[in-house]
Amino acid sequence: MKSVLRIISILIGSAVILFTGGCDSISTGSAGGEIQYVDFTGFEKIYNNQEGILDFGGKPVGTGDRAIQALKIKNIGAGDLIINNISLVGAAFSFVDGKGPGLPLLIPEGKTINDIFIEFSPDSGGDYEGKLFVEREGDTDCFDLTGQGLWLLTLTVAGSGDDSYGAIRSPVNVTAGNSVTIALPDAARLSCEINDFFDLSQWSVLSNSGEAPVFENQSAKDTEVILKSHTEITLDILQSFVIVPDNTASIQSAIDTCSADSNLLGVIVRTGTYNQNFTMKAGAPLYGGYASSGSARDYKNRTLYQTIVNGSIGASGSVLDNSVLLEGFIINGHVSYSSGAGAGIQHNTINGQGGTPALSLNSVTSEVQHNIITGGSAADQSTALFVTGRSVPRLLFNEIHGGTTTADYSKVYVVRATEGAAPVLYGNTISGGTAAGAGSESFAVFNDFECEPLLRGNSISGGSAPGADGRTYGIYMVNNGKAVADYNEIDGGDGYEAFALYGAYGANFYLSYNNIFTSSAAGRRYGVYLGAQGRVRLLTENGLYGCPDSMLHTSIPDTDITDIEAVNDYFHTDTNRASAISYTIPEGEPIHE
Fold first, then answer.
1. Which of 73, 143, 231, 504 has its CA 20 to 30 A from that of 590?
2. Model confidence band, residue 50 (pLDDT cutoffs 50, 70, 90)
């Protein structure tokens, strides 16, 4: 705090010659009344010429608003107090309307005046200093004046439609469609937050009354803005997604538009039912599960904002990335990816219709995770997931369920792999469907023609084939394939004949840390069944049980083995068990090779 100053004044006309520096107190004595400064209303009080400073605080610049305060002076002496002159020094400090008090000013004993009005009016940002001089008989009282000029910054967020929202943060929040005016010091850090629909373009100046602000980085979401003028600033938020049904009612039209424009990030489909067929394209990921307003999303719930497609979805191309992502839909139809289109297929519910596979992957490298995939109902054949053409997809944490068939000698496939496919299946629930009719078969995991699947940590059940001579299979492998299976629960199902694992014609099994069993069957129940040229290359640390007809059946005469000790003796190991084993998948185990 600076000191009240009593100095000897030198009058030249009506002007007061000021001494530089702070106010120091010098007294030459006085007669009659004694002055007492009560306060500037609303600011720091000053009593009896004690230490003090008149601080006007921050005043916005360029608004036309006036910061006016009344100075109160009380005579606490004996007799009249006569003030000969009151003056101000400092460009931003003045008497209101340029009118000082009438002089000389007489204040009777015990009386107070409060009609001396002083204004602080900065014309630019920054700190201001001034002085107030009050001259009476023999004395001049001096006070330091301070204030701060603050530029006003008007922040706005511009967006598009009812979906636009975002926020400018620090020192205040501004949401799209609104604006706020705030007083700032010379520098302020502004940052922007936006939602999935939009992207940031850049900060820009709308208007200013002086020097334009300086932008450290116009395109960054964190932007340092140096303000040296009364300025309006806006942040444009550009729509970066094509929205269905806002921008178009056609999902295909939205995909075509997005794929052709590199500035667009994807297609968003709001909750509703869409009876449409469409083809996925590179550069146009597709997102469902959004609320009708577009401002909320819950694609993992599958019940809150249902985005339903009744139709077929296809994709082809050569882009091996998530630019053809399909996420958050309930699809009653068929989904197929082919010819090198690598993609993410995640958090969808795919309900197959009829005998066409619910999901087909042909010659692709795709990641399929957290989906619910169910085969359709048909007379002769139903497939939930079909992998072919040497595809190497990763199937992670899905629920894959078999459909149903009704005819004799029909087949139900849950996961069907052919033609050298090598899918990685990790953490999935794979449950067989129902193959009705005489001689029908249900397969949980079916592999044919040199397939090489890796199965780790899955729950696999062969399903049901209740008709005469019906068969169910947990894992079925034929024609020179190789299956590596570990840490799985493998149930042969409950057909008339049930096989936990079946291998023939050059099939090879590598089995460790699995529980291998059959839940029930009206006829024969097998653990590992090896037909002609079927081989087990590794059988260690498994639990083999619930297979009363044979733990291990081979095509070699007289080698049907029902006793677990005979199984271990056959493989020269004693590590397999006649009951379920407990295992934990080791941390850090790879989910693909």
1. 504
2. very low
C-alpha–C-alpha distance, residues 356 and 333, integer Å: 9
Tell me how far apart the alpha carbons of residues 277 and 453 are, in angstroms, rounded to a whole number.
32
- In angstroms, how far is the first alpha carbon of the chain from the final one? 74
Single-letter residue type at 15: A
Residue 449: C-alpha distances to residues 282, 424, 475, 479 (Å)? 31, 17, 15, 5
Q: What is the pLDDT of residues 486-538, one digit of tens each?
A: 999 999 999 999 999 999 999 999 999 999 999 887 789 999 999 999 999 99
Structure letter (DSSP) for residue 366: -
3-state secondary structure 115-181: EEEEEECCCCCEEEEEEEEEEECCEEEEEEEEEEEEEEEEEEEECCHHHCCEEEECCCCEECCCEEE
Q: How far is CA 177 from CA 87, 161, 237, 290, 518, in A?
A: 49, 9, 11, 21, 63
Which two tokens mark 484? 């590596």
This prediction has a pTM of: 0.71
Q: CA 148 to CA 154: how far, in whole Å? A: 19
Q: How far apart are CA 288 and CA 290, in angstroms?
A: 6
Contacts of 561 (CB under 8 A, 6+ apart): 550, 551, 552, 553, 554, 567, 570
Phi-psi region of 328 (alpha: psi -120 to 50; beta: other; left: phi over 0): left
Phi, psi of 513 (to 5 degrees): 55, 40
Q: Please give the structure tokens belonging to residue 315.
A: 């994709």
- Helix then strand then coil, in percent of the chain rounded to 5, is 5, 50, 45
Q: How many CB atoms lie within 10 A of CB 452?
A: 20
Residue type for position 521: A
CA distance 415 to 357: 10
Answer whether 441's CB lies under 8 Å from 465's CB: yes
Q: Which residues are CB-contacts of 240 (< 8 A; sequence separation ≥ 6)?
A: 197, 198, 199, 263, 264, 265
Is residue 579 packed enough to be buried (19+ CB in 10 Å), middle (13-18) or exposed (0-12)?
A: exposed
CB within 8 Å of 590: residues ≥ 6 apart: none
Note the pLDDT tens digit of each residue in 122-175. 887 778 899 988 888 778 888 888 888 887 777 777 665 445 556 776 667 777
289's tokens: 């599960």
Find out whether 162 and 293 touch, Cβ atoms under 8 Å. Answer: yes
- Strand 307-316 relative to strand 272-274: parallel, antiparallel, unpaired? parallel
Rounded-to-integer distance, Cα 341 and Cα 314, Å: 10
Contact 188, 222 (CB under 8 A): no
**For residue 542, which of 446, 475, 465 has the smallest C-alpha distance?**
475
**Tokens representing residue 94 in the block:** 């003045």
Which residues touch 321 (CB under 8 Å, ≥6 apart)? 342, 343
Alpha-carbon distance of 491 to 547, in angstroms, equals 10
Comparing CA positions, the residue from 291, 288, 294, 289 lying closest to residue 313 is: 288
* Helix, coil or strand: residue 161: helix
CB 409 within 8 A of CB 394: no
Question: Residue 513: how many CA atoms within 13 Å on its side-chain side?
Answer: 12
